[in-house]
Amino acid sequence: MTYSKKRPLPPAVKYASRHFQNIWIADGSTLEALFHKLESLQDVPIGALAGKICTVVDLLTRLPMQVWTNWLFYAILIDLADAVAEELALPFERIYLEMV
User: What's the whole-model pTM score?
Assistant: First the structure.
């Protein structure tokens, strides 16, 4: 895909880009799902690749900003959820990790 032919930004992203210097998104997955998507390590039995991966990507440039794997994933997710709760002035218990 060339940049001249990429899909137009959704209205919400256009709006946010006018108000924020950076727009980052986080994507979490298991390492098994990642390797399956990449069609790598097909001969490894299911369940043999323990671990998690989290990638933070700049939404506008689609460039990765940071990648974490394994046990750090959960710790960083908790820290991020805490920052979201603080920014929204909500108790941490009101933040669902699946939504961060």
Answer: 0.47
